[in-house]
Amino acid sequence: MNRKISCAVAIAAAAGAVSFALPGTASAAPAFNCAKVATPSNSNGWGNTVPDERGQAGKITAGVASDNDGSLEFATSASTKRQASYHSAGQLPLADLNGSALTFQKSNGNANWQIRITGANTGTSSGFATLVWGAPIGAGKADATSSNQWWATRKLGNIPAAQNASLSALIAAANSDGKKAVVDLYGISSQPGGTADAKVNVDEVTFNSCTTNFKVSGGNGSIEFPSFGS
Questions:
Q1: Does the pTM exceed 0.70?
Q2: Which of 48, 85, 109, 209 is the most exposed place for a label (fewest CB within 10 A)?
Q3: Where is the signal peptide (predicted)?
């Protein structure tokens, strides 16, 4: 994943993140909702309503990533350099991800974990940052659980932006200085860089002990503007 492109996206997203997902702006945080199945006609909370990322959501298609019942597909090109789909995490405490499995199945191509957090020790009022992990290009199971190749789009405590670290180290840094970071959204992005057309299919996304199966069962495949947490 191109970190320069991703960090530029993150900087553009910062202003939107303040209004989109500030901890404490609602009377109570919504509970984490496990979406076990997402289909073209019922995305079950998956999509992309991040203000600066409209139009970037993937589509549920018959493409194969693991099983034969469909997957979440990201198609990029010279005009569409990045796609990303998220699900609400209901302001899950970031510390809850320590030791939790973070995996997905993928076809050949670029796919990355995107975990959008707020309330972290970033030196900003919102505490917004995105935690990113890039899967190997080859097809198969992508397991980021114990990887030391995670990085953040902003400085977290003493860890500079874009510096590789384990997720546990980033969590500790995000929660340093008395902060209690929360996860607002989690999801997958594809941003291979370059201008050539590219495609990757993702399925069986596991986050916080919840696995989502992307499955074709009617509809046109578009999941661009769902309601999160449905």
A1: yes
A2: 209
A3: 1-28
